[in-house]
Specification:
Blueprint lengths: L4 H16 L7 H6 L8 E4 L3 E5 L5 E9 L13 H21 L6 E6 L11 E8 L20 E3 H8 L10
Antiparallel strand pairs: 1-2, 2-3, 3-5, 4-5, 4-6
The protein binds zinc ion (2 copies).
Amino acid sequence: MATPLNQINNGGMIGRMARVGGCLSECIFCQIASSSSTSTTLLHSDDKVVAFRDINPSAFRHYLVIPKQHIPTVKNLQRSPEDFSLVSHMLDVGKSLLHRDAPQSKHYRFGFHQPPFNSVDHLHLHCLALPFTPSWRFIKYSSLGPLGGFIGFIEAEKLLERIKPRVPHPSSM
Ligand SMILES: [Zn+2]
Ligand SMILES: [Zn+2]
């Protein structure tokens, strides 16, 4: 017996909707953020972001903080109050988790990989409590590339400077 035509159409429609609706079926970080990935323990969750352990840690403590909203990379962030406060919030969450879980660490690092050096196309803040393990992993989380610019990795504070909304300076006129 042939498959009824309406079933074929439904299948096609659902497939298209999943694509248009974003990354629900394909993006691993969206699955984690929506708690549909049961294998990931969330260290923090609020209405804007979630945090969890990096699956392949590069330091004594290595967490990721991601927005619940699917923002692909730092290139998609705007110089706007919304994006600035989102990244500030991600950094605050990462800092408080590391200060809680690695209070004895002397050095911390917070930042983002820039395309094409990012591993997953869903914005994620790397939060590292040093030392790096193994120590050569520092290369992956350092902002100095061969040309000395923000190649590969950009520290969160530098990104915040970049997307900080311009405020008018009444006194400078
Ligand atoms: Zn996503
Ligand atoms: Zn990354």
